[in-house]
Structure formats: C-alpha cells, structure tokens
Amino acid sequence: METTILIERNEAMQLVAWKELMALSIQRRRDIVKEILFYDETPEEEVKQVDSLSEIFNHKIVDYLIKKLLCATNEYIEDELKTLYNKNYMVVGEPILYDKCECCGYRTIEAHIGWDICPNCYWEDDGIKELNKHSPVNRMTLQQGRDNFIEFEACSSEFVKYVKAGRKRYLR
C-alpha cells in the first residue's frame, strides 16, 4: 500500500501555483501580468513597456494563481500534486466557501456584484439574477449562459479555452 503524504493547504496551493506558472503559455502569462498591473493601478503607458516574461513577475503571478485556488477543492489540489510528484497526498485545511456563480452554480464568486469572472464558466457577475434579462457585460441573458454551460462547459463557446473544468476543481 502506498503512503499518503499530509500537506497543509497553503503549501499545496503554492506547489500547484508554481506548476501552473511553468505551464503558462506566453500569451496567458502576458494577460495575467496585464491584469496584475491593472489592479496595481499601473499607468497604461508603463504597462505597454513591461517585459511580462521577466522573472520579476514570477512571484506576483504565483500569488495571482494561488488566489484562483482559494476556492478549489482539496481533491483537485491532491490530483494536481499526484500528477506533479507521482505520490498520494492528503491536503489538510478547507477551501474558502465562495458564493455560487449565477450561471454554472459552482462556488467561484468571491462576492456578488464584485464583477468577479467565474473561472469555471467565465460568466462575469454583474448582479443580474433574472433568467431572461440581457446582461450587457456578458452579451447574453443568464438563461443563454446556463444553456451554453450545459453545452460547452462555459457561458459561451468563445471562452472554452479559458475555463478550467470544474466538476472536481470547484465546490457546488
């Protein structure tokens, strides 16, 4: 019987985030750096001159990726660690219980009407809960987003490349 290694949730998230950093495409890395600089209120002229491939951004990108893992299930993190190290892990600690996304129903929204984008389906939380009311930011109704999620596992076919399959990754 194989031994299971216990690991604290914060340490496990760090390892998974570093793994994800190393696997990022150049374009995805650039997009994340732009988002980080946007939230840091860096002037747009400076953002254009930034070398997003520089190692100076590695820790900020890892912090960004860890934030995306705060609501991930322990099962997902354990699977990622097993893939990385070929050993069994048991994560000690619980995920943060976020609010449910109005589109996919998974707990990925930090705070409603915070304009969070659900990493599971890419629906932007704009506070609209009525199924047939048009959401300008999502360019569709909530019902259309839900129907698309059933078909594509994203609120729109254009976002399939951005979402992470959530059946194991996020709580319902």
Secondary structure topology:
Blueprint (H helix, E strand, L loop, with lengths): L3 E5 H15 L2 H14 L4 H6 L8 H12 L4 H12 L2 E5 L6 E2 L6 E3 L24 E2 L4 E2 H11 L13 H4 L3
Parallel strand pairs: 1-2
Antiparallel strand pairs: 3-4, 5-6
Helix pairs in contact: 1-4, 1-5
Walk me through this protein's architecture.
It is a single chain. The protein starts with a strand and ends with a helix. It has helices at 9-23, 26-39, 44-49, 58-69, 74-85, 142-152, 166-169, and strands spanning 4-8, 88-92, 99-100, 107-109, 134-135, 140-141. With 172 residues, it is α+β, with helices and mostly antiparallel strands. The chain has seven helices and six strands, in the order βαααααβββββαα. The protein is globular and about 55 Å long. The model has no long low-confidence stretch (mean pLDDT 91). It has two domains: 4-92, no CATH class; 99-169, no CATH class. Strand 3 and strand 4 (107-109) form a beta hairpin. The strands form three sheets. A two-stranded parallel sheet has the order 1-2. It comes from Chitinophaga silvatica. Residues 100-166 form the Cysteine-rich CPCC domain. Pfam families: Cys_rich_CPCC. This is Cysteine-rich CPCC domain-containing protein. InterPro entries: Cys_rich_CPCC.
